[in-house]
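quick one, 84 residues, struct below
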Amino acid sequence: MMSNESSKENVVQYILRTLGLTMSDALCLGDDYNDLGLFQFCGYSVAMGNAIKELQDIANEITETNDNDGVALILERFAGSQKS
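---
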């Protein structure tokens, strides 16, 4: 059992607020039903290639599967774009 207010989006929003950022500043990645709320609030959402259809339908982008290093591909691309 857990609180109805417990969710990934609430935790991410709390952390971002602490850092002086908003949800529109966030990149999120996910693959299952518990990520749906997060995808609705993040500034940019990336579904894994093995994600549920509902998540892929609302994602800004779909990457490779977990087994094919989809997270690493996105992080490398976004982190690489931040280098001077």
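The chain has one domain: 8-80.
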